[in-house]
Write a structure and sequence with these properties.
This protein is mostly helical and 129 residues long. Helices cover 49% and strands 0% of the residues. The protein starts with a helix and ends in a 7-residue tail after the last helix.
Amino acid sequence: MNTFISAITFKCPACHQESLYENPALYTLKDLSKNKKCCNNCGADFQPEPGFYFGAAYVSWGLTVATWVAVLVALKCFDWWGWMEFGFLTHPVTFLFSGIGTSLVLFPYMFRLSRSIWAHFFIAEKTEE
């Protein structure tokens, strides 16, 4: 499994087999941020230092910006296709509610995705010897 697929499915950055999270269910909010300490398959340390995942906030910011841009593009396409009337300056409430709604629905996935991407940047992949 390649690194991209491993990152978006929240698998171990080293062996790409085990989940990074104790509970793989996305919308169980009480377990949303509970990472495993290490991989049960290869022993990779998922928490190499205290506060390791604070940097994932930068990844989360980028994903959130991308989400809002995607909402804007979708609304403009709907306007162009004639499915709804939308103008960025004439219908700001439509844009805000659509963006906020999309962000709320995608929050658990984006939260875990940003942590997974951060882990894939900094936790070394095991090489075959």
